[in-house]
Write a structure and sequence with these properties.
This protein is an alpha/beta fold and 372 residues long. The protein is built from 13 helices and 17 strands. The strands form 4 sheets. Strands 6-3-1-7-8-12-11 form a 7-stranded mixed sheet, sandwiched between helices. The longest helix has 19 residues, at 26-44. Keywords: Signal.
C-alpha cells in the first residue's frame, strides 16, 4: 500500500464509524466457495509446470505482497518461479528490506518469448509506471494469468485489465478502483477473486491464503497442506469480511501523532543469516513498520556475510552491514513458524505501544485475528 501515510493525513477530517465484524453468513460462505473453486478451475487450465513471474519495481515494491508469494511458491517446490524487476539492481521493498531480483523484464522476455503462465503483481510505489503497464499488457495478451496482490489491483487497473471484470481489493482502494473501472464490479467478502484471467485480492495479509491457493492449484492440495502446516496457516479459503475495515478518528489520530512524533521512533534490527525464513521475516518487518513508530532493518549475524544473505527461498537479501547502536535487536526464533511469528509481533506491538497501535497494523494489513 504505497500511499498509506498520505491517505491517513488526507483523511484526518473524516469521521467514519466502522461497523462491528459479523460472523459470516451462508451467502458469504457460498461466495467464498465459488471464488475458491473459480481460482482452482483457472489454475487447472495452466501448464502443470508453469513459468511464474513475481514482478517488482526497483524503486519501491510492497514487502509482504512480494516476498510471501515468492517464498511460498518456492517452498512448495515449484521450479520456475522468478523475481522479475523492471531494471538491473536491487529492489527497495516498502515499508522495509531490500532484495536482489532474479532477472529483469528484458532478460525474462529473451528467455520466455512466449510469456509467463502466471504473473504476480504486488503493490508498487508508482502504480502507473509505463514500463510495468506495457509489460503486463503484453503478458496478458500472451495468455498469462495475472494476479494482483493487495494494491497491485491499482496496477492492473492502470493497465486496463479490470475493465468489465469482477474484482476485489484492499479496503482503501475500493472506491478508486470502482471509479476508474465503471464497467467492472467490486465483490465484497472474498479474499481473492478470479475473473477471465485476472485475479485480485484484499489487503496485505491476503498474500498468505492467495499463495497457498496457488500452490494447491499448481501442485495439489496435499502439498498445499504441507506448506500451510510449515507456515502455521490453518485456512486459505477465500472467506473474508470486508465491512470491518474502515477509518475512524481514533485510528487517524494514532497514525498522525506517530508520524509527526519522530523523537518517539524506534529502530529494530533483525539478525539474519543464510536460510532465514522469507515469510516470517516479511510479516515481522511489515507489521512493525506499520506502527509508524518503527524502522526495521536486517543485519547479518556474521561479519562473513558482508552485506548479503541468502533467504530460504534462494532470493538474496541486502542487509545493513552493522547494527546502529540505538537499534533494538528483534530475533526470529527458528522454532517459531511464520504465522506464530506474525501473531507474536502483533502481541509485542500491543505490549510496547498499546492496543491502538496493534489495531492500526491490523487495519493496514487487512488482517482479522482468528478469535474475532
Amino acid at each position: 500500500m504505497p500511499r498509506f501515510a498520505v491517505i491517513f493525513f488526507a483523511l484526518l477530517t473524516l469521521v467514519v464509524s466502522p461497523p462491528a465484524l459479523a460472523a459470516p453468513d451462508a451467502a458469504d460462505q457460498s461466495a467464498s466457495f465459488v471464488a475458491q473453486r473459480d481460482l482452482q478451475d483457472a489454475l487447472s487450465k495452466r501448464p502443470r509446470d508453469p513459468v511464474i513471474a513475481v514482478i517488482a519495481l526497483n524503486e519501491g515494491t510492497e514487502t509482504t505482497d512480494f516476498l510471501i508469494p515468492y517464498g511460498v511458491l518456492k517452498r512448495a517446490g515449484i521450479k520456475h518461479v522468478q523475481a522479475v524487476a523492471v531494471d538491473d539492481g536491487d529492489v527497495t521493498l516498502m515499508p522495509a528490506l531490500r532484495v536482489v531480483p532474479d532477472i529483469t523484464f528484458a532478460d525474462f522476455d529473451a528467455r520466455h518469448p512466449e510469456g509467463a503462465d502466471i504473473v504476480i503483481v504486488p503493490a508498487v510505489h508508482a502504480d502507473n509506471d509505463p514500463r510495468i503497464l506495457r509489460w503486463l499488457q503484453q503478458q496478458a495478451a500472451h495468455g498469462a494469468l495475472i494476479v494482483g496482490v493487495c494494491s497491485g489491483a491499482r496496477v492492473l487497473s492502470q493497465a486496463g485489465l479490470l475493465k468489465g471484470r469482477r474484482f476485489t481489493g484492499h479496503w482503501y482502494d475500493r472506491s478508486d478502483l470502482r471509479d476508474a473501472n465503471p464497467t467492472a464490479r467490486y465483490v465484497p467478502d472474498v479474499r481473492y477473486l478470479h475473473d477471465n484471467g485476472i485475479v485480485t485480492t484484499t489487503g496485505v495479509s491476503a498474500s498468505v491464503p492467495l499463495a497457498l491457493a496457488l500452490v494447491e492449484g499448481i501442485v495439489g492440495r496435499d502439498r498445499a497442506l504441507d506448506v500451510a502446516r510449515s507456515l502455521g496457516a490453518t485456512d486459505w479459503s477465500a472467506q473474508h469480511r470486508s465491512a470491518g475495515f474502515q477509518l475512524n478518528t481514533r485510528r487517524l489520530w494514532t497514525v498522525a501523532s506517530n508520524a509527526v512524533s519522530v523523537w518517539r521512533h524506534d529502530t529494530l534490527a533483525i539478525p539474519v543469516a543464510d536460510g532465514v525464513d522469507d515469510i516470517a521475516l516479511a510479516l515481522t518487518a511489515d507489521a512493525w513498520s506499520r506502527t509508524w513508530r518503527t524502522t526495521v532493518i536486517a543485519t547479518p549475524v556474521s561479519a562473513a556475510s558482508a552485506d548479503r544473505v541468502r533467504l530460504a527461498s534462494g532470493l538474496t537479501l541486502v542487509t545493513t552491514a552493522s547494527r546502529p547502536s540505538a537499534a533494538r535487536p528483534l530475533a526470529l526464533p527458528p522454532n517459531r513458524n511464520a504465522m506464530m511469528q506474525f501473531v507474536q509481533s502483533l502481541h509485542d506491538i500491543a505490549q510496547r505501544y498499546g492496543a491502538a497501535e496493534r489495531d492500526i497494523v491490523e487495519l493496514a494489513m487487512e488482517y482479522v485475528p482468528p478469535s474475532r
